[in-house]
Design brief:
heterodimer; A: 518 residues; alpha+beta; 7-stranded antiparallel beta sheet; 20 strands; 33% helix; globular; disordered N terminus; disordered C terminus; B: 408 residues; Alpha-Beta Plaits; 3 domains; 8-stranded antiparallel beta sheet; 5-stranded antiparallel beta sheet; 12 helices
């Protein structure tokens, strides 16, 4: 079933009904009607927004709104009715209050690099783009924190800290574009989170605008504030509990030394066994990433690093620590790789070579355009000893569905990123890709894992929630949602599936992403 | 005497709590090893103690995945001994490990000296199960080390003091045990001099896992508990390192060289067997002993030495996790056993406030209980916290008095 074949669709998401006040709970709409459902916002609201913000900061021309119809999850698209670009917390709060007065949904957006539809404007409404709030307010090395705006690009903080001996540890592959506010909302990871932890381990506090427009400070520059760790709760809440308008992040000491290695394997099986052996041996590498042949091919064509094109898989490995210890640790990892059948282990000989290796890894997704017109990235997690099993399963799924799948992922965390290649113009391929994705993620659950390690639930995986969590688990999460977002106007349709008896109305949705998650 | 319920399974607990919620709505207090139960939750006839000591199974320990799943009533010592057999650990320090339970440690957000290098429970807890006030057994997170599905209920469990739900089971990610460890124990004339060293340590070539500053009487307690002959006549700075034998020795030498120009009066090193009793004395210091009041302050690290100067002048025995800005202090009784100066508490709390932090009381003798403000200044997010408590426990059944500055 394609996105526009006119068959009826029932939508099940948490959130308020939008413009059609007469809509009933059992609404059935055709995809065509859903597309039309994006009507304009109340004129009064538009006027209010133009009063709060400068004219240039309120965008409602359809041709400009198209940019905001999706994030990195391109399977499902919907335009917001208006995008606003506030420049201060007060402006964000005023916009939120105005939306509430007019009963119109709203959601925050950073750079839109999220991969699960986290900033898809479900049902339209007002999108609050935070990209103009990008200041670094304070860097305090003595107390090891920085205070930044949510729209600050991740790598800009890294650049600012260069030479200080400190850095901000979470380094998502999209760090050249993604914002720290987006990292906060999705609890972003990255290659070096294996040793240093994900975003939540590096956020000390946040100023947030709540769903009702109140501005509240959670946590702050001191650790262990008395009471509940609301900072920890809000990080990774995918914009459903509040809009982060300022962050206090922990700065981490730079490693004294590191060794970066590339191990070349004949087969994916050998490489995944090596990963399990390295973790099983009690080594905590700074990073441990795998790329299979398909990715190597694309990356090599793009960056000409000198990857062996005939290799089944390579492991990009990094250890860090004191100069005195990194060689011994690197040698241990090299011996394990060799014992697992690596035909070659190279070390990066210079900082430039190291940076180039990491560039290849982090821009691998960009290189995929060379392989296929469209792709769909999954984000499953398995216990690390189960990596050989899940990789074999992925190969099997690839054969059975006749879908080419390439792999580049955070192996050391057990966080897989199978990339399914297809042409979105071919409905049959789309169908097979969705079914194959579903089978891979289901297997992750069966192996004791999760359907998302770092990309989030968003809209893409919302229907997996009831397979990962019991009705009681979801009921408790629903209470938390309703505690801070009782009307459901903030980021509707995200993360939590609708629960029976919660009084949530149904909302029109577009089609295929839903199926991706079924 | 309060009534008591001792569940033997999590399901049994859920049934009991559900029955209670539907029936008599007795107030419930989860109990672990009773190591941090203080006067802060007033004893009451109406409260039913939920004793979790029988929920102590090792649920799953796939050592090669470096994760472990245990029930809440297992003691910290038992968990650490299970992990030790696989040369692994949960690198957070817990006092009174043979009595303290994992559930209690999570509920109190326990930690110790190694948090400078290894962080705290929020960096290791990846899965949680609990029974809410309605008797629903729910879980959050999972058993894999990276997982962003759903709200992070693990973070809510940590430090929740039994007020949101009765914690029943946890999954932690683990770290390898280090081969060796060592400590440098130094004294300085003033805390201000130590602040200079702390600033130097920010760019040290070494990577300490513990940075502890002690007032002289606190140092005396610790040296005595460790049966170690260590200098205690001046403010003390203790730095801990871990690694292989050679990296430990190298770091100690490096730190010695970095510190000497800053006015070190005395310097002793403890390695291998000699280090371990000192580590454990540094961990145990937080346990209330005879002193009538024990507090914890959280400050910007840059203000901690000023706080210690003030605390020491007031006769407080204080230990500071200097990299994290956390201070544990025991306020002694007046000479002759009189009431301790509550003014000291007020004064320290005021300073904590100006240093961007707060001060909470962890223990107070029963006769002081009602005269003490336990929770300090309300945090800016206190209203949100209360909202959450009300949402998850609308009838205020779980540790009801704690949250609003219990004991009053």
């Amino acid at each position: 079933m394609g996105p526009s074949d006119g068959r009826p669709v029932t939508a099940h998401v948490r959130g308020p009904s939008l413009r059609d006040e007469t809509e009933t709970a059992s609404v059935m709409m055709t995809a065509h009607e859903i597309t039309r459902a994006s009507a304009s916002v109340p004129v009064g609201l538009l006027q209010e927004l133009r009063g709060i913000l400068s004219a240039a900061a309120v965008v409602d021309e359809p041709q400009r709104l198209v940019v905001y119809e999706c994030d990195g999850f391109v399977v499902e698209k919907n335009m917001p009715d208006v995008v606003v670009f506030p420049e201060s917390t007060e402006e964000v709060a005023a916009v939120v209050r105005a939306c509430n007065r007019h009963n119109v949904p709203f959601l925050p957006r950073g750079a839109g690099t999220s991969l699960a539809g986290g900033c898809l404007p479900v049902g339209g409404g007002i999108m609050i783009a935070l990209t103009r709030m990008k200041a670094i307010h304070e860097i305090n090395l003595r107390d090891r924190y920085a205070v930044v705006d949510p729209g600050l690009v991740n790598v800009h903080l890294t650049q600012k800290l260069k030479g200080s001996g400190y850095h901000y540890a979470p380094d998502p592959s999209s760090q050249g574009a993604c914002t720290l506010g987006g990292n906060f909302a999705t609890n972003s990871g990255g290659p070096h989170t294996l040793k240093y932890g994900v975003t939540v381990n590096h956020v000390l506090g946040a100023e947030v605008v709540l769903a009702n427009g109140d501005v509240v400070m959670l946590g702050g520059p001191t650790e262990d504030i008395p009471g509940y760790d609301l900072t920890g709760l809000f990080v990774g809440s995918e914009g459903t509990l509040g809009i982060c308008t300022r962050l206090w992040v922990r700065l981490t000491r730079d490693p004294a030394a590191y060794r970066t290695m590339l191990a070349v394997f004949e087969t994916v099986d050998d490489a995944t066994v090596a990963i399990s052996e390295i973790i099983g041996a009690g080594i905590v590498p700074a990073a441990l990433e795998m790329m299979d042949q398909g990715i190597i091919e694309a990356v090599e064509a793009a960056f000409h690093f000198g990857f062996p094109l005939d290799a089944g898989a390579v492991l990009l490995m990094e250890v860090d620590g004191l100069e005195l210890e990194v060689d011994a640790e690197a040698t241990r990892m090299e011996s394990i790789c060799t014992a697992c059948g690596a035909r070659e282990v190279r070390r990066a000989n210079s900082p430039e070579e190291r940076l180039k290796l990491w560039k290849c890894r982090k821009q691998a997704f960009g290189a995929i355009g060379r392989l296929s017109p469209s792709y769909c990235t999954q984000d499953g997690v398995v216990p690390r000893t189960k990596l050989p099993q899940i990789l074999q399963h992925i190969q099997d799924v690839s054969r059975r569905y006749d879908v080419r799948i390439v792999n580049v992922f955070h192996a050391g965390d057990g966080n897989i990123h199978p990339i399914l290649l297809f042409d979105e113009r071919d409905p049959d391929q789309v169908e097979r890709v969705l079914a194959a994705s579903d089978e891979i993620l289901s297997r992750c659950i069966d192996l004791g894992g999760s359907v998302t390690g770092e990309h989030g639930i968003g809209v893409e995986k919302i229907n997996f929630m009831s397979r990962l969590f019991s009705p009681d688990d979801l009921a408790v999460m629903g209470l938390i949602h309703d505690c801070y977002n009782p009307e459901g106007r903030l980021s509707p349709g995200k993360m939590l599936p609708v629960l029976a008896g919660c009084g949530n109305e149904h909302m029109p949705r577009r089609v295929p992403g839903r199926k991706a998650a079924l | 005497m309060p009534s008591v319920f001792t569940p033997s399974t999590q399901t049994e607990l859920a049934r009991f709590v559900a029955g209670n919620a539907a029936g008599s709505r007795q107030r419930l207090r989860p109990i672990g090893g009773r190591t941090t139960l203080s006067a802060n939750v007033a004893n009451s006839e109406e409260i039913c103690e939920i004793r979790l000591g029988d929920l102590k199974s090792l649920v799953d320990y796939p050592a090669r995945d470096m994760t472990v799943t245990v029930e809440a009533g297992m003691t910290v010592a038992e968990l650490q001994s299970i992990l030790q057999k696989e040369k692994q650990r949960l690198p957070v320090d817990f006092a009174q490990a043979t009595r303290a339970t994992i559930g209690g440690a999570v509920a109190m957000n326990a930690s110790g000296p190694r948090r400078a290098g290894h962080g705290s429970l929020r960096d290791y807890l990846i899965g949680v199960s609990a029974v809410d006030a309605q008797g629903r057994l729910f879980h959050g997170g999972g058993r894999v080390v990276k997982n962003v599905a759903g709200y992070d209920l693990c973070k809510l469990a940590i430090g929740s003091r039994g007020t949101l739900a009765i914690l029943t089971q946890f999954t932690f990610k683990l770290r390898p045990l280090p081969e060796a460890e060592g400590l440098i124990w130094t004294t300085f004339d003033t805390f201000a001099e130590i602040e200079n060293v702390l600033e130097r340590l920010l760019v040290s070539a070494a990577r300490p896992v513990a940075v502890e500053v002690l007032t002289p009487p606190a140092a005396a307690v610790i040296a005595n508990a460790a049966h170690a002959s260590l200098p205690i006549d001046r403010p003390v700075l203790v730095i801990g390192v871990e690694g292989t034998e050679s990296t430990v020795m190298w770091q100690i030498e490096q730190l010695r060289r970095e510190m000497v120009p800053f006015g070190v009066q005395d310097l002793q090193t403890c390695t291998s067997e000699a280090a371990s009793p000192v580590w454990s004395a540094l961990t145990e210091f937080q346990t209330p002993a005879d002193d009538p009041i024990t507090f914890q302050a959280n400050l910007r690290p840059s203000r901690a030495m000023e706080f210690l100067t003030l605390a020491h002048a007031a006769g407080v025995l204080a230990q500071c996790h200097a990299a994290n800005g956390l201070i544990v202090g025991h306020i002694p009784a007046e000479p002759g056993g009189g009431t301790p100066p509550l003014g000291t508490l007020t004064k320290l709390r005021e300073f904590a406030r100006t240093a961007g932090g707060n001060l909470t009381v962890r223990h107070a003798d029963e006769n002081l209980s009602s005269r003490i403000d336990w929770l300090g200044d309300p945090e800016p997010s206190a209203t949100l916290m209360r909202q959450l408590k009300k949402k998850l426990d609308p009838h205020e059944l779980l540790n009801p008095t704690w949250f609003d500055g219990a004991g009053k």
